[in-house]
């Protein structure tokens, strides 16, 4: 089925962002361009599913420890609402710009308050960086772990911003849901800190793609492999490699 769907171009996105950051409430409809032909794309389910999250954020904002849990729950709702949207629409940055301004500014201004205050608002609303733009990164996070109808791994890890953005969504791991789910399970058990463990571990995992088709693994097999990689990462270096060379005696 073909759809007519709303988009916002880059120029209008900049103008809208400037007005919002300046504390104004801009008129959105004049900035919207409709693309395609057929029935209008229906987004009312997304809007209604977001309402409890908006209320929750207003009444009881999540603590620092729980921000990523909240974002994971929100990701599940976003993906469930948009998973049937045709891929050609999901590939249109203008569509994600529209979603950013129409449905997600309430979360963007709260979640990314610090970078927005430093002039980086477009990173989160212009659709050019899917891993950073609010609605697109929510969609990708849920998609990266979805197996059937279970979205629970998306909200399983507190304090996990770097885990999701750097070690799942920006790399091939995020294209293999069963691997991503196993990675979430391992991280929930091992609680690897970015330094000195998670970053070198993730590099080892990413190198594994060169000789293993990780997307073919079942979740249990992926977890076994990830555990083996973890054990290898945690091994101490050979004793000779850990010693500094001796200086010649005078």
Tell me, briefly, the overall form: globular
Q: Give the averaged pLDDT, no decimals.
A: 94
Strand order of the largest sheet: 2-1-3
The largest sheet, given as strand count, sense and whether it forms a barrel, is:
3 strands, mixed
Give a count of the beta strands, DSSP E runs of length 2 or more: 3
- The rounded distance between the terminal residues' Cα atoms is 83 Å
Q: In DSSP terms, counting alpha (H) and pi (I) runs of 4 or more, how many helices?
A: 14
Strand content: under 5%
Radius of gyration: 21 Å
Helix-and-strand structural type: mainly alpha
What is the helix/strand order? EHEEHHHHHHHHHHHHH
Low-confidence segments, given as residue ranges, are 241-250
Into how many domains do the coordinates divide?
A: 2
Helix content: 55-70%
How would you characterize this protein structure?
There is one protein chain. The chain has 250 residues and is mainly α. The chain folds into two domains: 1-148, no CATH class; 160-235, no CATH class. Helix content is 58%, strand content 4%. The chain is built from 14 helices and three strands. It has helices at 10-21, 44-59, 67-82, 87-90, 93-103, 105-111, 113-117, 122-125, 134-145, 161-169, 177-190, 194-208, 219-234, 239-242; strands spanning 3-7, 33-36, 39-40. Strands 2-1-3 form a three-stranded mixed sheet. Helix 3 (67-82) packs across helix 9 (134-145).
């Amino acid at each position: 089925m073909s759809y007519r769907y709303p988009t916002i171009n880059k120029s209008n996105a900049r103008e809208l962002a400037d007005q919002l950051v300046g504390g104004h409430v801009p008129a959105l409809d004049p900035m919207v361009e409709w693309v395609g032909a057929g029935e209008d794309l229906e987004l009312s389910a997304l809007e209604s599913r977001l309402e409890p999250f908006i209320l929750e954020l207003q009444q009881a904002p999540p603590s620092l420890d729980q921000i990523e849990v909240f974002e994971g729950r929100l990701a599940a709702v976003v993906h469930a609402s948009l998973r049937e949207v045709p891929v050609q629409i999901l590939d249109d940055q203008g569509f994600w710009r529209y979603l950013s301004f129409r449905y997600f500014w309430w979360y963007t201004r709260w979640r990314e308050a610090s970078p927005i205050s430093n002039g980086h608002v477009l990173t989160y609303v212009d659709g050019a960086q899917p891993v950073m733009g609010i609605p697109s990164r929510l969609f990708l996070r849920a998609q990266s772990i979805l197996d059937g109808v279970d979205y629970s791994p998306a909200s399983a890890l507190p304090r996990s911003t770097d885990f999701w953005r750097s070690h799942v969504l920006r790399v091939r791991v995020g294209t293999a849901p069963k691997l991503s789910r196993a990675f979430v399970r391992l991280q929930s058990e091992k609680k690897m800190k970015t330094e000195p463990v998670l970053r070198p571990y993730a590099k080892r995992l990413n190198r594994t793609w060169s000789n293993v088709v990780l997307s073919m693994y079942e979740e249990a097999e992926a977890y076994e492999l990830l555990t083996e990689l973890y054990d290898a990462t945690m091994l101490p270096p050979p004793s000779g490699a850990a010693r500094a060379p001796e200086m010649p005696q005078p």
